[in-house]
Amino acid sequence: MEPDFNFSTGPEKVFIEGFHARILNGILHIVFRSAEKSYSFVLPLDLTKKLSRGLAAQVEEIEKKNNIVIDGRLPNEPMVSPIQAQIIEGDTPPEEKK
User: Fold this and answer.
1) How far is 18 from 41, CA to CA, in rounded Å?
2) How far apart are alpha carbons 56 and 62 in whole angstroms?
3) I want to staple 28 with a disulfide (CB 3.0 to 4.6 A). Which of 22, 33, 43, 75 is the partner?
4) For residue 31, what are the contacts with CB-CB under 8 A and spacing of at least 6?
């Protein structure tokens, strides 16, 4: 097993503002954006799955520990409205009125 990585003494850190990812021919191609720079990486699918599961577990732990829900929607996923319409007793929805 690989020894734990010491994040406080590791190489310089770069704040990532966004990313693009695509799996092509069984390899994850991922580009991270930071300001005007881009950093490209390729990962085999087994490592991609391990990374995905490891990150999901850590985010889930943070959400449970802090009693929060982190918005993880992808750009093409719709936002669920926090406003929910309630039918008042005795009233019928507009599409049912005649």
Assistant:
1) 14
2) 10
3) 43
4) 19, 20, 21, 38, 39, 40, 41
Token couple for 28:
């994850």
User: DSSP per residue over 29-64, as a string?
Assistant: EEEEEETTEEEEEEEEHHHHHHHHHHHHHHHHHHHH
Q: What is the SS3 assignment for 81?
A: coil
Secondary structure letter of residue 11 according to DSSP = S
Digit-coded pLDDT (tens) for 19-49: 999 999 999 999 999 999 999 999 999 999 9
Task: Please state the pTM of the whole predicted model.
Answer: 0.66
| pLDDT confidence of residue 7 | 83
- Calpha distance 18→68 (Å, rounded): 22
